[in-house]
Amino acid sequence: MILYFSGTGNTRLAADRLARLTGDQAVPIDFDAASMPLQGRRDRIVWCFPTYSWGPPPVVADFISRVRLEAGGIPHFMLTTCGDDMAYTDRRWKRLIAARGWQAAGAFAVAMPNTYVLMKGFDVDSPETAAAKLAAMPAAMEPIAEAIGSGGPDILIRGSWPWVKSYVIYPWFVRHAMSPRPFHHTGACTGCGGCARSCPLGNIAMQPGGTPHWGNRCAMCLRCYHSCPRNAVAYGKATAGKGRYMAPKDI
Questions:
Q1: What is the model's pLDDT at position 136?
Q2: Which CATH superfamily is domain 2-175 in?
Q3: CA 120, 123, 126, 130 torsion: positive or negative?
Q4: 8 Å CB contact between 154 and 81
Q5: CA–CA separation, 248 and 241 (whole Å)
Q6: Could you tell me the residue ranges of all domains in the chain?
Q7: Exposed/middle/buried for 53, CB within 10 Å: 0-12, 13-18, 19+?
Q8: Alpha carbon of 204 to those of 7, 8, 97: distances in Å?
Q9: What angle do the packed helices 58-66 and 89-99 form, to 10 degrees?
């Protein structure tokens, strides 16, 4: 079974491609579920998620730490999507898997368009760069699928200074840069409710006046920001002038 979490659709595309290549079934993670029944292939689990500041998304890490899986002794694999590099995301994931007594059998990464825009200096890729990454993804997934099936070597995108990124920047990011409080709507908001309906954790509620309000249970996936048809979602002043990106439904 392929379990995936995707904010803007990048990881969904990669998980769907992997499912086509392996004959497996891609299933979105239900974060409210206490247990997940195995679907499709029952002899392995592939965890698919985006890299968050060179580590696993905290919402995925929390889910791994508590979910009950109807499986014992089967291998677990990781596939992460990253804008540029994933540093030691695989090592942090392997520690989560080991803590559950599970077998971490392999880890893989594939480059996809950048989506993080909440800090100075971070923005989406140019349309040309995003298109090139999307076009390259299907071919990049073929050796990953083969390695999962044959027990081949990990395929990773380490980048420079991986230890600093994953063991210094990532913990700081999780502790100090993941507050949902700066999220707000601008005057362009029409109250359509699309952000609330699409939020994977149900963290956005529509107020009596027809405008969205962000709670404290946020995955920081930025789906609300990138998918708003009126570009009416903002994060403090950090998103002023920044681009938006949503993955196509299929490639």
A1: 98
A2: Flavodoxin domain (3.40.50.360)
A3: positive
A4: no
A5: 23
A6: 2-175, 183-234
A7: buried
A8: 14, 16, 30
A9: 20
Topology of 183-234 in CATH?
Answer: Alpha-Beta Plaits (3.30.70)
Percent of the chain with pLDDT over 90: 94
Sign of CA dihedral 208, 211, 215, 217: positive
What does the pLDDT read at residue 62? 98
In the numeric block, the tokens 């508590």 are attached to 66
Residue 1 has pLDDT above 80, yes or no: yes
Longest CA–CA span in the chain (Å) reads: 56
Residue type, 114: N
53 φ/ψ angles, rounded to the nearest 5 degrees: 45, 45
In DSSP notation, the chain reads -EEE--SSSHHHHHHHHHHHHHT--EEE--TT-SEE---S-SS-EEEEEE-SSSS--HHHHHHHHH-EES-SS-EEEEEEEESS--TTHHHHHHHHHHHTT-EEEEEEEEE------SSTT--PPPHHHHHHHHHHHHHHHHHHHHHHHHT---B----SSHHHIIIIIHHHHHHHS--STTEEE-TT-----HHHHH-TT--EEE-TTS-EEE-S------HHHHH-TT--EEETTTTTT-------S--
The pTM of the full predicted model, rounded to 2 decimals, is: 0.96
Give residue-wise pLDDT tens across range 22-35. 999 999 999 999 99
Q: What is the pLDDT of residue 109?
A: 98
**Would you state the torsion angle of the CA atoms of residues 15, 16, 18, 22, taken in this order, to the nearest 10 degrees?**
130
pLDDT tens figures, 153-206:
999 999 999 999 999 999 999 999 999 999 999 999 999 999 999 999 999 999
